[in-house]
Write a structure and sequence with these properties.
Helix content is 46%, strand content 0%. It has 167 residues and is mostly helical. The protein has one domain. The longest helix is centred in the middle third of the chain and has 13 residues. Keywords: Cell adhesion, Glycoprotein, Membrane, Signal.
Length: 167
């Protein structure tokens, strides 16, 4: 339905007010389509707010979006800073474990919005959390606020993490 809607919306060219359209619609446009109305950074900031699950997790379209986002943000290694993590939004759900490990805690806030993880992503999240080298600090210093911020990651935490969290 969304791809059909995109065809209707773009029938006479790319509308100048694309930012006012539902974010999910942008998943079916390319950054070059969007370029006339804004920057690729703006495009991926909008994509990061879209429901990526509209596209299948391992689909070529979703993989291509992530590759284009990394290129747009000039992320050439596996380290993602907080600003770029914010722009990527839900696209961080598709980043491999090497990105999660080398970005430290920069991705945790966005990762907590993901629906599911691959086993290697889960292991990387546990490793980053256990290190305590995040803005959230070590689990022994967490509060109810911290748990609320990371609530989407709680199913990933193992016993060794959970037992350190203060009651």
């Amino acid at each position: 339905q969304l791809s059909c809607l995109v065809k209707m919306v773009t029938l006479y060219g790319i509308p100048k007010d694309l930012d006012s359209y539902p974010k999910d619609l942008l998943l079916f446009l390319s950054p070059s389509d969007y370029a006339a109305t804004g920057s690729c950074r703006q495009y991926f900031a909008n994509i990061g707010k879209a429901n990526l699950d509209v596209l299948q997790r391992e689909s070529s379209q979703r993989k291509q979006l992530l590759l284009e986002a990394l290129a747009c943000l000039k992320i050439s290694n596996t380290q993602v800073n907080e600003e770029n993590a914010e722009i990527l939004g839900r696209l961080v759900c598709d980043l491999g474990e090497e990105y999660i490990r080398s970005s430290g805690g920069n991705l945790l806030k966005q990762l907590s919005q993901c629906e599911s993880f691959l086993p290697d992503q889960e292991e990387a999240i546990r490793s980053v959390i256990s290190s305590g080298n995040t803005t959230f600090g070590p689990p022994v210093a967490w509060s109810a606020f911290t748990l609320n911020e990371l609530s989407g990651l709680i199913p990933v935490f193992d016993h060794s993490i959970l037992q350190k969290v203060p009651k």
